[in-house]
Design brief:
Beta-Lactamase; 2 domains; about 270 residues; Arc Repressor Mutant, subunit A
Length: about 270
């Protein structure tokens, strides 16, 4: 993975505004969050130019600022574009039929989300048929540390990349994960790896519980996660039954994307 300070991220002399804006989006896609000053330094821009471009990108929804820290991240327009890109690369095409079947199996809401910095962003949802069901808007982000989507994605990362991501969470002013609690999160991730799917027992939302599992591409990298979520009174007692169904569904989507589980293959 590219480092934020690598010379390859510095723009060539005379690069236009479009090139600079795209480079900013690309950089945020790699590092997750950073300051405008960080962008200026990484891309070789003057601070005045960086601030002017950032203001424009925020205005158009391509970038957003985290409310407490003011750090920049990719915004809702970028999330919508990511969703369109996912559809064009086959993830959505492969996932939707599986999610529909999973929703019918469990009678609960099945979702697909992709990583964005310290969050997972919903790009597709199949709402459960029951009168009271978990719902949510597409493009809405959920934290990595406290959701089954995020935990399953973390569990799918290599150990090196996991430690990098945990360090990002500790460093972020908008993440409750700190030096004292990161060890607990690391233990949760390890338990998720051993179990084969992640769980959230009222930890993100007191009224709901969910199970999640990572989706891998042909390179073996986690590129998304799926989940089944329902109201806590229904879900909490059946998580151990629903979890394996979610893991099986995620494995099916991964296989359709070209992923081969070398461990399972022996």
């Amino acid at each position: 993975m590219r480092s934020p300070a690598t010379p390859s991220t510095v723009l060539a002399p005379g690069a236009g505004a479009l090139d600079r804006g795209l480079a900013m989006l690309d950089h945020l896609g790699v590092v997750g969050t950073c300051t405008t000053q960080d962008l200026a330094a990484a891309l070789g821009l003057s601070r005045s130019t960086a601030y002017r471009l950032v203001d424009r990108l925020v205005e158009q929804g391509w970038l957003a600022q985290e409310p407490r820290s003011g750090l920049l991240r990719l915004g809702p327009s970028a999330a919508r574009l990511a969703s369109a890109a996912i559809r064009s690369t086959g993830l959505n095409e492969q996932a939707v039929p599986v999610l529909t079947r999973l929703m019918r199996q469990t009678q609960e809401t099945a979702s697909l989300a992709v990583p964005n910095g310290a969050t997972m962003v919903f790009v597709h949802r199949e709402r459960g048929p029951r009168p009271v069901a978990v719902t949510g808007e597409l493009g809405v982000a959920r934290p990595l540390h406290s959701t089954s989507l995020g935990r399953s994605y973390l569990a799918g990362l290599s150990q090196t990349r996991l430690e990098e991501k945990l360090a990002e969470l500790v460093a972020s002013a908008d993440s409750p994960v700190d030096a004292d609690s990161v060890g607990s999160l690391r233990s949760v991730v390890e338990a998720t790896r051993e179990r084969g799917w992640a769980e959230d027992r009222r930890e993100f939302d007191e009224s709901s519980c969910c199970c999640g599992a990572a989706v891998y591409d042909h390179t073996g990298m986690p590129v998304a996660a799926i989940s089944v979520a329902g109201v806590a009174e229904r879900m909490e007692g059946v998580l151990d039954e629903v979890g394996p169904l979610v893991a099986q569904a995620a494995a099916e989507i991964s296989a359709a994307l070209g992923y081969v589980d070398r461990g399972a293959a022996g």
